[in-house]
Amino acid sequence: MDVLSEILFPVIEEAKRNIESASGLEASPEAPLFGDGGLDSMGLVQFIILVEERLQDVAGVELTLASDKAMSRRSSPFQTLGTLAEYIGECLAEEGKDV
Predict the structure, then answer these.
(1) pTM of the entire structure?
(2) CATH number of the domain enclosing 27
């Protein structure tokens, strides 16, 4: 599964329609997800929920992305779409799902 094209890019389009701070998000691995050019804190929470729902629908797996595992990392998985895609790939691999 290509996490960017199958999960994150479609969520960006949905987020732009439903999350006020998502208007500047771009469908690019380098696109900032949080902070300058990205989402505000509430928008990030809403975006993560949309991603988790899409993962359930597409991959049939329930993941909690904003977990202790994510928060305890030296580098946040929520910096860019690319870092989030890598983190999701790791989580799916741990679940035994094809990435």
Answers:
(1) 0.91
(2) 1.10.1200
